[in-house]
Design brief:
The chain is built from 15 helices and 13 strands. It folds into 2 domains: 223 residues, Glycogen Phosphorylase B (Rossmann fold); 156 residues, Rossmann fold, CATH 3.40.50. β6, α8 and β7 form a beta-alpha-beta unit. It is elongated. It is of the alpha/beta class. The protein starts with 12 loop residues before the first helix and ends in a 6-residue tail after the last helix. The relative contact order is 0.10. The strands form 3 sheets. Strands 10-9-8-11-12-13 form a 6-stranded parallel β-sheet, with helices on both faces. The longest helix has 17 residues.
Length: 418
């Protein structure tokens, strides 16, 4: 299995999926070897990783996630990070080179293209030392590695698409370099897994992927503590709290959240709106809140940890995910586990499977405001989504997607579906 993040390292959506899916596969009796590029240099130092000049990759974690079936995680020294753009990679690379002044040679590729190809080469070296049946590559930064391993070993390749370039830009355009790798991965794979039917349609219509190769495997709920453990000491008594949590980017629709908030505050002025997360739109959103005169009703937390996220969900009366383009969206499950009534955009993949949540078009801020007000003012509706949503998320286990993945593996290695 190839991915660019895995807890306890950067744990965005794909990393959480890799962790949960691996655990569930282990429970079925499958052995998994996970190969990943590591995070920024600061993480190497914190973890006492080998100094330059020593082996570039080694076993980083070798523990039994499930008794009797080990998952080995290999690290490849790399500057690749989740959601990296060409500009962000260049900035990270230049910062790294500044730290290496006076030292000979460069450890990493000069641009994102070189680094993705470098990871593919290193992953191929590791794979040649392993015994395995199937290659499973997560998202575009690992697709070239999957292709190289397939060429070297003849093993079948599954590529899993969690998000495409079109989703990141709200459907407008795609970086040509990243698009070319995404398309090549889909073309040269034996099977394509998408996390929703919405994403399947994108792969067919935008990447011209063969529909016969695509299998939809919806994500399940992430593992969180269900205990409500936050006392809300920083919010005034009587205030209601509405939460947005996630990357503050065009894809996630934070500006629509703000416009809906303005309409809610016209009728419920004691409502507090929390935007938790960081992203390139954060300064723009802060300015929008100020321009609309809403500053006293908004709280911006910046980046938050999973532990802080649990407290935020416990604090909130309503969670809203107004995503413009969301291939799946795990966060509503996290809100439900914390018994927080949830509103999601109809443009999200999770809307295909979530039943106990209110749904709205991301652009319809009037309807979004109406639904927020309904959950704040009608206790029967609030309680129904609070309790039924919790049961829905609690029962959405990873055993189902793991079983579907096993069926796909068996299908392509000639054992037939299970």
């Amino acid at each position: 299995m190839l991915g660019w993040e895995f807890p306890p390292f950067f744990a965005g959506g794909a990393g959480i999926v890799c962790n949960e899916l691996t655990r569930a596969l282990n429970r079925t009796g499958a052995d998994v070897t996970f190969i990943m590029p590591s995070g920024p240099e600061e993480i190497y130092e914190n973890l006492n990783i080998d100094e330059p000049g020593k082996p570039r990759f080694r076993i980083l974690i070798a523990n039994n996630i499930y008794p009797g079936k080990p998952t080995k995680v290999y690290k490849v020294d790399s500057l690749l990070q989740a959601y990296t753009t060409s500009e962000q990679y260049e900035h990270t690379y230049n910062r790294h080179m500044q730290k290496r002044k006076g030292k000979h040679g460069a450890l990493y590729g000069r641009n994102l293209k070189e680094e993705v190809m470098r990871f593919a080469e290193k992953a191929r070296e590791i794979a040649l030392m392993e015994d395995f049946d199937v290659i499973h590559a997560h998202d575009w930064t690992t697709f070239l590695a999957g292709i190289e391993i397939k060429k070297a070993t003849g093993k079948p390749l599954v590529v899993q698409v969690h998000i495409t370039e079109f989703d990141k830009t709200g459907g407008d355009h795609a970086d040509p370099f990243i698009y070319s790798i995404e398309k090549r991965g889909m073309d040269e794979s034996d099977r394509i897994i998408t996390v929703s039917n919405k994403l399947k349609d994108t792969c067919i219509n935008r990447y011209f992927a063969d529909p016969a190769k695509i299998r939809v495997v919806h994500n399940a709920a992430t593992t969180m503590r269900s205990k409500e453990d936050y006392d809300g000491a920083h919010i005034k008594a009587g205030d209601k709290v509405v939460l947005f949590a996630g990357r503050v980017t065009l894809q996630k629709g934070p500006d629509y959240f703000v416009y809906a908030a303005k309409k809610v505050l016209d009728q419920a002025p004691n409502t507090k709106f929390v935007i938790a997360g960081n992203g390139d739109m954060l300064p723009q959103v802060i300015n929008l809140v100020a321009d609309l005169g809403l500053s006293k009703n908004f709280i911006f937390t910046g980046f938050y940890t999973r532990e802080e996220g649990e407290k935020l969900f416990s604090l909130a009366d309503v969670f809203v995910m107004p995503s413009v383009s969301e291939p799946f969206g795990l966060v509503p499950y996290e809100a439900q586990i914390k018994r927080t009534p949830t509103i999601i955009s109809k443009q999200s993949g999770i809307s295909e499977v979530l039943r106990h949540a209110l749904k709205v078009d991301f652009w319809d801020v009037d309807e979004m405001a109406h639904k927020i007000l309904a959950l704040l003012h009608y206790s029967s509706l609030h309680n129904e989504l609070k309790h039924n949503g919790y049961e829905e998320a609690r029962n959405a286990t990873w055993d189902v997607p793991a079983g579907k993945c096993l069926g796909i593996y068996n299908e392509i290695i000639g054992r037939g579906e299970i």
